[in-house]
């Protein structure tokens, strides 16, 4: 078996330069050339996973099939590569320290003094090589979170230095992502921040093999020469990454710049055939030249920050392209929505999606949104909490159970149509204890869900504590709200829908996590199609 090759992606100057997108784009190109490629992310914070982080702090929490709560960059990896990720693809400092401290408590270090070097760094190195040792991949790309020079990134940088040394020539390379700012007053691009960043990296004993320079303006040959000389890299290894109109253009931009070719050369691997990006470019063409436009309201409580609903926004991009439709997602804050202004706020909308979330803030607004969509025959799609709101709205306004609620919002409600799962009742730890990961769902024939999926058994990813209360199932079904999907193991309702409506469906799981460029999610595709159709009428 050939040795797995490693590519490490570090960032300098400032955060949010798009290391995840560069890593995903490079992986896409290498995959397109026939290499089995995967990406992993190492995050320098002390939370054990992002599951307990506020979405405002860190954007959405992305969930994998095996139930890992991970960084939202893993969403990009899956959307680009169309390959599922797992627990092994995302590691935090918290998880590393937890593991080392547990080993120390078990006495595994034989009385040695436990230190950052070698104990923490060894743990990091082990985890960096887990996927590589599985035999499933030719190339493993590892993205190091944070910025070079941060105190918290130091153990990772030291681990990378050691690994590059351990693995030997041509088996591991470092790509450094940096910023070339444009000073409007001077009218020029400045290379000094990049020089400093590379110098900081060298002080840690790491030489960058490739520089990827984020910029708003084209980088001249003169600047490339200067960067190559002062940052100690070959000229062809100075890669320009200019702002793109969509992240999905970045693989093509990196192909033009030759990022994949330079990386393969440094890893001493054959180029093989040019990357096959046919499907990718068909998607891009449809994305850029839509035939229709629709406005879809995203009703949520974290709408001020778009990263909070990253996967949903991306799923709309995939579904929009599949329908040759530009989807304008209009964010509407559910906290400021009520019966008096819902008609006015929904005036320009063609459909609504009621988003997932936790806690009681803004839920009455969500219920109002569902009522409006149901009564006015506006295409409606509810995800997780959105599906629960649909159940509560129907119970209150159609079945006349005025007090109907979720015990999450009102523990004393007379009609808990949404209730805490039995196995959740005695849990005190919040992290990693929800219903997480892929679960099966049986779909009833002759339903909207069945038409959408074209299957009777599906698997979707979950992240929630509260469930549809089965004690109200018969009453709701008789009243017209159909339960079209049920979990075979627990008997819990996963999908609700209404007949005699252009499109009305609520799902307990998170379909957005599984939508990729090459496999747009059928729920989103069908929802957008229904919105286009209803708008035409």
Architecture overview:
There is one protein chain. It is globular, with a radius of gyration of 25 Å. Strands 13-12-14-15-23-22-21-18-19 form a nine-stranded mixed sheet, with helices on both faces. The protein has a seven-stranded parallel sheet with strand order 5-2-6-1-7-10-11, with helices on both faces. It is an alpha/beta fold. The chain has 18 helices and 23 strands. The model has no long low-confidence stretch (mean pLDDT 90). The N and C termini lie far apart (60 Å).
Features:
537 residues; 23 strands; single chain; nine-stranded mixed β-sheet; seven-stranded parallel β-sheet; alpha/beta
Give the strand line-up of the largest sheet: 13-12-14-15-23-22-21-18-19
Shape: globular
**What would the average pLDDT be, to the nearest integer?**
90
Low-confidence stretches: none
* Tally of DSSP β-strands: 23
Task: Annotate the secondary structure layout.
Blueprint: E1 5-11, H1 19-32, E2 37-43, H2 55-58, E3 62-63, E4 69-70, H3 73-81, E5 90-92, H4 93-106, H5 116-129, E6 139-144, H6 154-167, E7 172-179, E8 182-183, E9 188-189, H7 192-203, E10 210-215, H8 221-231, E11 238-242, H9 250-257, H10 259-266, H11 278-288, E12 292-300, H12 310-322, E13 325-333, H13 342-345, E14 351-354, H14 363-375, E15 380-383, H15 385-397, E16 405-406, E17 416-420, E18 435-443, H16 448-453, E19 457-464, E20 466-468, H17 473-478, E21 482-486, E22 493-497, E23 504-507, H18 522-536
Parallel strand pairs: 1-6, 1-7, 2-5, 2-6, 7-10, 10-11, 12-13, 12-14, 14-15, 15-23, 16-17
Antiparallel strand pairs: 3-4, 8-9, 17-20, 18-19, 18-21, 21-22, 22-23
Helix pairs in contact: 1-3, 1-9, 4-5, 5-6, 11-12, 12-18, 14-15
């Amino acid at each position: 078996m050939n040795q797995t090759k490693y590519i490490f992606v570090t960032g300098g100057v400032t955060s949010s330069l798009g290391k995840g997108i560069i890593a995903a784009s490079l992986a896409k190109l290498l995959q397109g050339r026939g290499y089995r490629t995967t990406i992993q992310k190492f995050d320098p914070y002390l939370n054990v996973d992002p599951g307990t982080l506020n979405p405002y702090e860190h954007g959405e929490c992305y969930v994998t099939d095996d139930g890992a709560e991970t960084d939202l960059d893993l969403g990009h990896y899956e959307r680009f590569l169309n390959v599922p990720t797992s627990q092994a693809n995302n590691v935090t400092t918290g998880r590393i320290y937890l593991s080392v401290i547990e080993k120390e408590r078990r006495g595994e270090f034989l009385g040695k003094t436990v230190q950052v070097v070698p104990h923490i760094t060894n743990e990091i190195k082990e985890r960096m090589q887990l996927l590589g040792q599985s035999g499933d991949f030719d190339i493993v790309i590892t993205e190091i979170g944070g910025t070079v020079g941060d105190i918290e990134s130091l153990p990772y940088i030291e681990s990378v230095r050691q690994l590059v040394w351990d693995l030997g020539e041509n088996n591991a390379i470092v790509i450094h992502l940096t910023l070339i700012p444009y000073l409007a007053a001077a009218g020029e691009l400045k290379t000094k921040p990049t020089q400093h960043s590379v110098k900081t990296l060298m002080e840690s004993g790491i030489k960058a093999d490739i520089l990827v320079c984020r910029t708003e303006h084209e980088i001249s040959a003169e600047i490339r020469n200067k960067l190559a000389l002062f940052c100690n890299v070959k000229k062809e290894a100075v890669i320009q990454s200019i702002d793109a109109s969509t992240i999905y253009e970045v693989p093509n931009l990196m192909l033009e710049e030759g990022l994949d070719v330079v990386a393969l050369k440094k890893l001493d691997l054959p180029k093989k055939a040019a990357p096959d990006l046919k499907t990718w470019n068909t998607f891009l063409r449809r994305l850029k030249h839509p035939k229709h436009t629709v406005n879809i309201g995203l009703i949520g409580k974290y709408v001020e920050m778009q990263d909070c609903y990253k996967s949903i926004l991306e799923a709309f991009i995939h579904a929009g392209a599949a329908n040759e439709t530009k989807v304008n997602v209009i964010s509407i804050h559910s906290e400021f929505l009520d019966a008096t202004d819902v008609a006015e706020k929904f005036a320009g909308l063609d459909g609504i999606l009621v988003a997932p979330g936790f806690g009681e803030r803004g839920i009455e607004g969500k219920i109002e949104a569902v009522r409006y969509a149901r009564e006015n025959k506006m295409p409606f799609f509810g995800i997780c909490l959105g599906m629960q709101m649909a159940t509560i709205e129907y119970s209150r306004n159609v079945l006349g159970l005025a007090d109907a609620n979720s015990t999450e919002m009102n523990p004393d409600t007379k009609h808990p149509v949404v209730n805490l799962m039995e196995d959740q009742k005695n849990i005190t730890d919040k992290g990693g204890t929800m219903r997480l990961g892929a679960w099966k769902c049986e779909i009833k024939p002759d339903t909207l869900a069945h038409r959408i999926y074209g299957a009777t058994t599906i698997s979707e990813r979950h992240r929630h504590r509260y469930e549809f209360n089965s004690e109200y199932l018969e009453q709701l079904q008789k009243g017209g709200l159909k339960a079209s999907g049920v979990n075979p193991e627990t008997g819990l309702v996963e999908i609700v829908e209404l007949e005699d409506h252009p499109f009305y469906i609520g799902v307990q799981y998170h379909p957005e996590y599984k939508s990729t460029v090459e496999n747009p999610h059928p729920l989103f595709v069908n929802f957008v199609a229904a919105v286009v159709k209803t708008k035409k009428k």
